[in-house]
From TrEMBL:
<protein>
    <recommendedName>
        <fullName>EF-hand domain-containing protein</fullName>
    </recommendedName>
</protein>
<feature type="domain" description="EF-hand">
    <location>
        <begin position="15"/>
        <end position="50"/>
    </location>
</feature>
<dbReference type="Pfam" id="PF13499">
    <property type="entry name" value="EF-hand_7"/>
</dbReference>
<dbReference type="InterPro" id="IPR018247">
    <property type="entry name" value="EF_Hand_1_Ca_BS"/>
</dbReference>
<feature type="domain" description="EF-hand">
    <location>
        <begin position="56"/>
        <end position="91"/>
    </location>
</feature>
<dbReference type="InterPro" id="IPR002048">
    <property type="entry name" value="EF_hand_dom"/>
</dbReference>
<dbReference type="GO" id="GO:0005509">
    <property type="term" value="F:calcium ion binding"/>
</dbReference>
């Protein structure tokens, strides 16, 4: 991404939603419309690899799921997942400078 592009995305809620929906569709392997724990684990492992950090532990994945799963159904809707995407974009923006 070019310099400042992640920050530009973060300023535009429609762009954030587009990024979230695109990522969600790629990871929602079973097409259920929700991300179950194994799918969340895949996302988190991919993000860790992209950021060059250690992959998350099982406990960290459980913690993120619990934190984002607002209705307590044990899976993430697109709206719940978008919160994670916004957090990842914010981390990327910090790395970008």
């Amino acid at each position: 991404m070019s310099n400042g592009s992640v920050k530009d995305i973060l300023k535009d809620k429609k762009k954030v939603r587009f990024v979230a929906e695109s990522a969600f569709k790629q990871v929602d392997k079973d097409g259920s419309g929700y991300l179950e724990r194994p799918e969340l684990e895949e996302v988190m492992n991919n993000v860790a690899a992209d950021l060059g950090v250690e992959p998350p532990t099982s406990e960290e994945i459980d913690e993120v799921l619990k934190e984002l799963d607002e209705n307590g159904d044990g899976k993430l809707s697109i709206d719940e997942f978008q919160v994670l995407i916004e957090q990842v974009l914010e981390m990327m923006a910090k790395v970008e400078g």
